[in-house]
Amino acid sequence: MLTHPQFDPIALSIGPLAVRWYGLMYLAAFVLFMLLGRAHARRRPELGWTTQQIDDLLMYGMIGVVLGGRLGEVLFFQPGYYLSHPAEILAIWKGGMSFHGGFLGVLAGMWLYGRRTGKGFWQVTDFIAPLVPTGLAAGRIGNFINGELWGRPVETELPWAMVYPWVDALPRHPSQLYQAAGEGLLLFAILWLYAARPRPLKAVSAVFLIGYGLLRFIAEFFRTPDPGIFGTLSLGLSTAQWLCVPMVAAGLWLLATNCKAIDSRT
C-alpha cells in the first residue's frame, strides 16, 4: 500500500510569481499538441496542413479547452460550490476542469476555425483527434499532483492502492493514473496508428468519440464520482458516465453512416 506524496502544488516560485504544476501540465499538453501536429502533418502531407495553420489551430483549441473546461466544471459538476464562491471560478490554477465542457469548447473553437479558414469541420476534427490524448494524460497527471479526483476505496488488496491522508485512511485506486494511462496513452496509441493511413472523412473523429467514451466510462468505476448537478443517476452511473453515452453513440453512428456511404459507392 502506498501513500500519496502530497506534492507541493507550486513547482517554482520567483518572488511573488508562483508557477504551479497544474499549469505546467497544461503547458505540456499544448506543446505536445504542437509537436505531434507537425509530425502528423509531415507523415500525411496530403492532408494539407501547414505549420502556421497548426499554430493557429492550437490557439483556438487553447481558448476552447480553458473556457469550456472551466464552464463545464462550474455548470455540470459543482454549481453549488461556485455559486457560493464566485471568485473561485477564475482560479483555474487550482484545478477543476471538466473534460466534457472542454470538449464542447474545443468543438466550438474548431467550428469557428473552420468557418474562418474554409476548412471543413470534420476535416479539422479528424486532424486533431490523434493529438488530443497526450494532453489528456498530462491533465490527469496534474490531477494526481494536486491530489484531486481520487479513486474509490479498493475492495481487494492491491500493491499500488494509495492512501490520500487528507481524505481518510482508506487505500484507494489511484484513478488519476488509470485515466492518464487509458484515456491518455492507450487512446493516443490507438488513434495515432489508426490515423497513419487514409481513412474516410469523420472516421478518425468517430474512433476518438468511441475510444474516449468507453475508456472514461470504465475509469469512472474506479474513481470517486464528482457530485455533478444530478449526483449519481439511474443505474448507479455517475454524471460523467452518462455524458459519455452520447459520445459513444455519436461515434458509432458516424462510423456506421460512413461505412454505408462507402459501400454505396463501390
TrEMBL record:
TM stretches of this protein:
20-37, 57-77, 97-114, 126-145, 176-194, 201-219, 239-256
PROSITE patterns xrefs: LGT
To which pathway does this protein belong? Protein modification; lipoprotein biosynthesis (diacylglyceryl transfer)
The main location class comes to membrane
Question: Where in or outside the cell is it found?
Answer: Cell membrane
How is the protein disposed in the membrane? Answer: Multi-pass membrane protein
Q: Which key words tag this protein in UniProt? A: Cell membrane, Membrane, Transferase, Transmembrane, Transmembrane helix
Residues annotated as binding a 1,2-diacyl-sn-glycero-3-phospho-(1'-sn-glycerol) are 140
EC id: 2.5.1.145
> Which Pfam families does the UniProt entry name for this protein?
LGT
One GO MF term attached to the UniProt entry? transferase activity
Family, per entry:
Belongs to the Lgt family.
| HAMAP family xref list | Lgt (MF_01147)
Report the function annotation for this chain.
Catalyzes the transfer of the diacylglyceryl group from phosphatidylglycerol to the sulfhydryl group of the N-terminal cysteine of a prolipoprotein, the first step in the formation of mature lipoproteins.
Q: What is this protein called?
A: Phosphatidylglycerol--prolipoprotein diacylglyceryl transferase
